[in-house]
Amino acid sequence: MPDPPIFSVIMPLHREHERLADVRSRVHSARSSAELIMVLNGVSLAEKVKAERPDERTLTCERPGRGFAFARGVAEAKGEITVLLHGDTLLPAGWDRAIVAALSDSHVVGGGFHMTFDRSSKYLDFLVGLSDFMVFLRFAMWGDRALFARTVVLRECVGALDVPLFEDVRLSKAVRRRGKLVLLDETVITSADHFWKNGPFTQSMRILRARTWYALGGDPQKIYDYYYSR
């Protein structure tokens, strides 16, 4: 039997993003053995997105929401290290070596990457700076940063993923209780499509309202319904 992969990269998909081929290519650029688990929301998507290589798998998740999809993938992960990757985020060259180097410190249990958007503007640069500040202040990482953790630790924290959204906030907190988190120097590139489609200010206000609602104890399902209702 072949050795188990070092990495399991879990990628939820609710639609076939135009960058999906590039995202998959970046995952497979790893020198380490890595499996890609695509968790599909809906049968219709399963007709369009299929495994194309032996190191790819597809799963389905009936419950809509990224957190539920990640939890489904974590349950099936075979790698020692798991990466939680958004379907519109490009990993940097050498991403696997950077993670392995970080985890060579036994005190480190996980972390994420620096991030940038695929379109440049002063406003988007400000949002990245704000995200960096939140990492510095509370080590609360956005999911766009391709969060990673030792799989054994992630399974201990899988309850944090049992929500349709804000799984990144919950997971950062849960993993941090079990050891040190690190922010890698390497940078992922994530999509700014929502900001361009809805308008930067409108999209920011929607995010701010959702996060404030959650911080005040709001029901994640109701917040999810609001956020994706338009």
General description of the model:
The protein is of the alpha/beta class and 230 residues long. The protein has a single domain, classed as Spore Coat Polysaccharide Biosynthesis Protein SpsA, Chain A. Helices cover 41% and strands 22% of the residues. It has ten helices and eight strands. It has helices spanning 20-27, 43-46, 66-76, 95-103, 122-138, 151-156, 167-176, 193-198, 200-215, 220-227, and strands spanning 7-13, 34-40, 56-60, 81-84, 89-90, 108-117, 147-150, 180-190. The chain has an eight-stranded mixed sheet with strand order 3-2-1-4-7-6-8-5, sandwiched between helices. Helix 9 runs antiparallel to helix 10 (220-227).
Chain-wise SSE layout:
Layout: E1 7-13, H1 20-27, E2 34-40, H2 43-46, E3 56-60, H3 66-76, E4 81-84, E5 89-90, H4 95-103, E6 108-117, H5 122-138, E7 147-150, H6 151-156, H7 167-176, E8 180-190, H8 193-198, H9 200-215, H10 220-227
Parallel strand pairs: 1-2, 1-4, 2-3, 6-8
Antiparallel strand pairs: 4-7, 5-8, 6-7
Helix pairs in contact: 9-10
Can you tag this structure with a few keywords?
8-stranded mixed beta sheet; Spore Coat Polysaccharide Biosynthesis Protein SpsA, Chain A
